Amino acid sequence: MSKSTDELFKNVISHAKEYGFVFQSSEIYDGLSAVYDYGQFGSELKNNIKTYWWKAMVQMHENIVGIDSAIFMHPKIWEASGHVAGFSDPMIDNKDSNKRYRADQLLEDKIERYKKDGKTDKAELLQEELDEALKMENLVGLKDLILAHEIADPVSGTRNWTDVRQFNLMFSTQMGAVADDADVVYLRPETAQGIFVNYLNVQKSGRMKIPFGIAQIGKAFRNEVIARQFIIRMREFEQMEMQFFVRPGTQKEWFEKWKKTRLEWHLALGTAPKKYRYHEHTKLAHYADAAYDIEFDFPFGFKEVEGIHSRTDFDLSQHQKFSNKKMQYFDPEIDPATEKPYGNYIPYVIETSIGLDRMFLLTMINAFEEEDLSTEEKQDSRTVLRLHPCLAPVKAAIFPLIKKDGLPEKAREIMDKLKLDFNLQYEEKDAIGKRYRRQDAIGTPICITVDHQTLEDNTVTIRYRDTMKQERVDARELEKILGDMVSWKNLLA
Ligand code: GAP
């Protein structure tokens, strides 16, 4: 990370705390590692991102419906899905510092250092060796690479490493009063399995025809070996996932369609296309036959925000095997090749899976600007969050110019009418300039000021966050101005 991007990231993190977006969980007890709380504006922003996703995926697609399944599920689900046996990261401990690391990340960091030092040949060779060791799950090989490249613990500075071991990322707990093995349940590490095990319930009760999708937003939990980069890698986080059930043999074209559709969803927010890129997986997860990430250019480099996975019929077949319940769908459509119905089959699945917290961070970073407003006469600056109005936590702030002469009452009257439709803030403390700056910092698209003229002709001053321009409008137009500005049509059309 260069100094300026490092600074930008630090500034976004401290801004997120100072203005009530994100707090460290349990902060007064010195925090809980990789767990965060969303504050008053953070939770609004997060809800708006969820709404945008839900509307784009469910409301805009007649063949996609949404569900809300439980976090706790039968433990056999995680055996069937492969998570009990295979959902793990290779970890290594340093015997002097007692610190634990992900072996692959130590090697990734080394590759980055080689690149920075201009040793591209070494970087490329190590990348190849790392990929091979991960593909073969060669834990001894990973340790050999760590030793061969003389990687030392950043804390102790020594190379006194344990062997590399697999570390399962699922949290487990006990259900019921008696704690024996039979009662072990897991906190779900992905929301997707709640969709798979309900797919026939939804298909039958909703009379869904293939191709169709099921969407879900919810918490997921992973005991990440190391926590890094603020809310990028958390132990408790939220996913927005959609499983799209298709006829076997058509998965490639649906995969391409969803890859494109999901990037369009991101770009509709006005983000510069160069900030995004696709990354094709070479090491596929145990369930996938194709996978792409949508990556965003964070201050610390391109990182995955969303995954598009072609999951084949792996999950449904596994659940059929483990539950002894039929997972087949009867397709009455006529196959032109045989002129007979397609009949019974287990559908193939294309998954789109986006991390809500990563989308939140991306949105904050993309919107954050420290703008220099200096003129020849004086130095000035402001911090502004240029959030899309649909995502902004507060849609408008209403100010009486001064706290007397009936202005607060008039401002409240306008506020009381508008708050039926919009999330607003009323502020009467401090000079107008200071109030503008506070709203800029939380991304409020417009501020509405009520002054003495308002009492005469019912006009107010609107001040726009992005341009800082002001205009005088009739207060009766406010509902339409705000409605047009925050309409979901602006994003969905
Ligand atoms: N159902 C597929 C699945 O869970 P994944 O690539 O492991 O796939 C999907 O996760 C998305 O969830 C990622 O693209 C990322 O945005 C988010 N995610 C995964 N682990 C996370 C973590 N520890 N903290 C925050 N977000 C995470």
Keywords:
Herpes Virus-1; single chain; 493 residues; alpha+beta; BirA Bifunctional Protein, domain 2; five-stranded mixed β-sheet; 3 domains; 17 helices
Structure description:
The chain is an alpha+beta fold and 493 residues long. The protein has 3 domains: 3-73 and 179-365, Bira Bifunctional Protein, Domain 2 (BirA Bifunctional Protein, domain 2), CATH 3.30.930.10; 88-168, Herpes Virus-1 (2-Layer Sandwich), CATH 3.30.40.230; 383-492, Rossmann fold, CATH 3.40.50. The chain is 36% helix and 27% strand. The protein is built from 17 helices and 23 strands. The protein has a 7-stranded mixed beta sheet with strand order 3-9-10-16-13-12-11. The protein has a 5-stranded mixed beta sheet with strand order 20-19-21-22-23, with helices on both faces. Strand 22 and strand 23 form a beta hairpin. Helix 5 (103-116) runs parallel beside helix 7 (139-148) and helix 6 (120-135) packs antiparallel against helix 7 (139-148). 32% of the residues are buried. The mean pLDDT is 95. The structure holds glycyl-adenosine-5'-phosphate. Glycyl-adenosine-5'-phosphate binds next to strand 10, strand 13, strand 16 and helix 12.
Top-tier CATH class of the largest domain? Alpha Beta
Which compounds are bound in this model? glycyl-adenosine-5'-phosphate
Q: State the end-to-end CA separation.
A: 37 Å
Average pLDDT, rounded to a whole number, is 95
Most strands sheet: 7 strands, mixed
CATH architecture descriptor name of the largest domain: 2-Layer Sandwich
Name the shape in a single word: globular
What structural class do the secondary elements suggest?
alpha+beta
As laid out across the biggest beta sheet, the strand order is 3-9-10-16-13-12-11
CATH topology of the largest domain: BirA Bifunctional Protein, domain 2
So how many helices?
17
Helicity range of the residues?
A: 25-40%
Give the CATH superfamily of the largest domain.
Answer: Bira Bifunctional Protein, Domain 2
**Unreliable residue runs:** none
Radius of gyration over C-alpha positions, nearest whole angstrom: 26 Å
Number of domains: 3
